[in-house]
Please model this.
Amino acid sequence: MELSERKKKVLRSVVDLYIRTAEPVGSKAVCELPDMKFSSATIRNEMAALTELGYLEQPHTSAGRIPSAAGYRLYVDELMADHRLSLEETKSINSAIEDKMQRLDRMMEKVAKLVSQATDLPAISVTSRQSGTTVKRYDLIQTGPTGVILVMMLSTDEVVNKLMRLPVDATDTDLKLLSAVLNAAMTGIGAEGFTSELLEKVMSSAGAAAMLVPVIVDFATETLRRQGHTDMAIAGQARLLGLPEYRDVDKAQKVLTSFDSDALSNLPAVMQNENGTKVLVGPENVAQELKDTSVVMTKFDIGDGLQGMIGVVGPTRMDYAKVTARLSYFAESLSKIFNKPEQPQLPDGDPVGEGLDPPSIQEN
Amino acid sequence: MELSERKKKVLRSVVDLYIRTAEPVGSKAVCELPDMKFSSATIRNEMAALTELGYLEQPHTSAGRIPSAAGYRLYVDELMADHRLSLEETKSINSAIEDKMQRLDRMMEKVAKLVSQATDLPAISVTSRQSGTTVKRYDLIQTGPTGVILVMMLSTDEVVNKLMRLPVDATDTDLKLLSAVLNAAMTGIGAEGFTSELLEKVMSSAGAAAMLVPVIVDFATETLRRQGHTDMAIAGQARLLGLPEYRDVDKAQKVLTSFDSDALSNLPAVMQNENGTKVLVGPENVAQELKDTSVVMTKFDIGDGLQGMIGVVGPTRMDYAKVTARLSYFAESLSKIFNKPEQPQLPDGDPVGEGLDPPSIQEN
DNA sequence: CTTTAGCACTCGATACCTTTGAGTGCTAAG
DNA sequence: CTTAGCACTCAAAGGTATCGAGTGCTAAAG
Model:
């Protein structure tokens, strides 16, 4: 059943006001809004109806109304105005992302900080990698009589290295042999492929530098295993305490504690089949600790099988329009940067992420 | 002037009780302690004297006493019992540090988490590197027609790499030439040494792969600059909210916010000339935000010009004995691990870090 | 039929007051 | 020097009255 235009307008007003004030909204406040042409009594009737329909709730008889989860859903899906970013906002976001950073995890830490700043809420950034990474290529570089650097190039084109010491002298030829063996036998297989049989086989044909093989296999296994891993950074936790709903220390503590625990580690799973921005409202959320708390997450593509996500955690009352707008913009900027890896380039003036899917919302 | 034995005993009792209960300590509570053989009236007199001397304070007339900053100092310096770790405690610390981890920063993140767990307080881990790092050696590895991996070995023996793309085909010989030039001209100099004259000089003699030089110089500069940098991880922020003194959200927020800002970035400077454990008590602390808050930090050596620190942040009332004991033990274990880089090995059963300097304290 | 003004009612929030009790300092006796 | 006793202080806790925002309902007006 479709709501009347007027009901929608009232509902939107209530949500907007509640987002701004964090306090139950009364009929008077609504009817005093600039473009509301009805008296408080009429509004009262509409609000009573909306309460009946389950879009609003009443904390107690003589208080105003607050939006229910269903009310938020309707708001996010249909009613909220899309919040265009001002020029200054896009500028400050861009210049923040601009400094090219070298290491992905450092960068994502920084991004979390920026998102937190932009939204005034705690922010999360996640990178997760599909498993199935393999080593594409091994190189060994000799440094001094017993020093050897192992350089591995992964199937994701990421390059990792490790410095090793060799107890006996090894010639350049020994190392060339070893790397040839490694490249022949140990490329294109995942972490689970490094069996002890393989290890033995490689060692037997590896010549003088064979004692390096276990170290290499260890390192490779560990590296590949880590590749399937998710990596998460959180910033701006303190901002939570600035919000009226978390003046109650116990509530705040529950939420903050859930950051430290791995309550959020199933976020990637939840987002797996989603695209664009997803709003998780209220109870039965990713983590049970987060009643009254919503999570807004946006996925973006890093390339190379890497999956990036940024998001914020805040009260269900948060300003969804602003938050989703900023997240989308961040995500889009980041996507652009990652797709031109060598010369990070700013996305230009276009202020809103038009290419993204509309936000979807999940509730209950 | 030296305090009488009895005064010391009373002072110790007051601090101990206050640490346990977080509430002003009355004469009755003190005289009910097992080995206190005087009546509450006597204790009252002693406490009045200690207040006179500035070691105790009275929040208001009819409340008990709490230790002043001076009181804490005396306590930490002379009075506190050294808290020996139980076997389980050492075991759990060891097994936690045990999993060898590859990347230093990841490891320090993990360590912060562990310290936080062990002390039930927010924990900080810092690694800082003296500047003055240089590149010791360059290697170029060709991967496919246009792919090149740059591997740099730093004077700290750390190895970093970067994947680059070359717009034109380059032969193995071109790369050999380039790396020879790099090794000849660009080793042993710091970030400030990479001038544009040097860049030009190197480019002119670099042959076919010369266009890589600016990218390499950029990367090297950035890397070296980062080397002088401090790196910090914080864990367990939520634990702060569990403490009675931070039920006041505003206080808690101030402290937590100071984590996000760089208020703590001068910690390394403060610790520069200190060894062992340092206790920073109360106001005029590292960060002004941290009134009522103390920081306990322990330095340890990572080697290779790297400096490690772990510490906790908590109320001035924190259990110094326990905290310093655990920090020392952690620090010692970490030192041992870092000094046997290839096969991390557990420190064995010796429960307390006897080799460390006695804790020093700074106040005001 | 819709809108609006009026009004009695509800109930959390606030302010004010009282009570309670832990803790003190002082005095005087042991 | 130590201790029991006692009057005094003052924050914390609890109880009561008041206030007012907001409601639902009714009846009149459009």
